[in-house]
Amino acid sequence: MEAEIELALTGLFNQYLAEPANAVLGMMGMAAENPKHPWPNWLVMEILVVALIMLTVALLRSQLSAANPGKLQHVFELIYGFIDDTIKEVGVHHGDRYIYYIGTVFVFILSMNLIGLIPGLDSPTNFIYVTVGLAISTFIYYNFFGIKELGFSYVKQFLGPVWWLAWLMVPVELISHFVRPLSLSVRLYGNMYAGEQVTGVFTSLTRILIPVIFILLHIFVAVVQTYVFTLLTTIYIAQATSEEH
């Protein structure tokens, strides 16, 4: 298997922060394959995305204005409105309780999908570890709030419409729920990885027209996959917190 090419930013992390990374891994009972290079590209890129989002939010907060909103505020207001409309269309009960998580998922995934277009950087969602982490977070989130909102009634969702079919419906429902993280993670990873590879191949072949076309296609795929993940997250929350389900 071809070794992963270390990004320049990852090289700086491994040069100056290798010891802290190895110490943390040791506390968790783990060890890096190469102790001199414990930082993988996907983790460094994920940290970079988080840092950029935090800086953007800090900048936005300092410039918030109801009378004279700036361009950045308009962008985030559009995102907020889009997420709010999606929640209402799906029919999430008390959707305002979940808009912050759903909105964070949307902004985080979209940022990770697009950052790979910057030369010298990679999209963290090209790595299965990242998409699995996102999917598991969503799985834990909607199950937690399903139990919190409905209590024992949440368990009844697994029993089916009639009690005498419970023996059949319980395993079917359990399999359906536990497949969701796999479906979410593989879909996002597969599409982003394929898009990245296609863009990289055509960029290496020619430098003008064709790369522009595939970069635009990559952006389209990044936006669509962000929306698909966010929409499915919203649907799962709606199903988990609604007594009708």
Summarize the structure.
The chain has 245 residues and is mainly alpha-helical.
Helicity level: over 70%
- Approximately how much beta-strand content do the residues carry? under 5%
What does the main sheet amount to?
none
Give the class from helix and strand content and strand pairing.
mainly alpha
Order of helices and strands: HHHHHHHHH
Domain unit count? 2
Intertermini distance = 46 Å
The DSSP helix count reads 9
Which overall shape is indicated by the principal axes computed on the Cα atoms? globular
Radius of gyration: 21 Å
Low-confidence stretches: none
Structure explained in plain terms:
- There is one protein chain.
- With 245 residues, the protein is mostly helical.
- It has two domains: 8-39, no CATH class; 43-241.
- It has helices at residues 8-16, 18-27, 41-62, 71-90, 99-115, 128-150, 152-156, 166-205, 209-241.
- Helix 3 (41-62) crosses helix 5, helix 6 runs antiparallel to helix 8 (166-205) and helix 8 packs antiparallel against helix 9 (209-241).
- The longest helix is centred in the last third of the chain and has 40 residues, at 166-205.
- The radius of gyration is 21 Å and the shape is globular.
- The N and C termini lie far apart (46 Å).
- The model has no long low-confidence stretch (mean pLDDT 88).
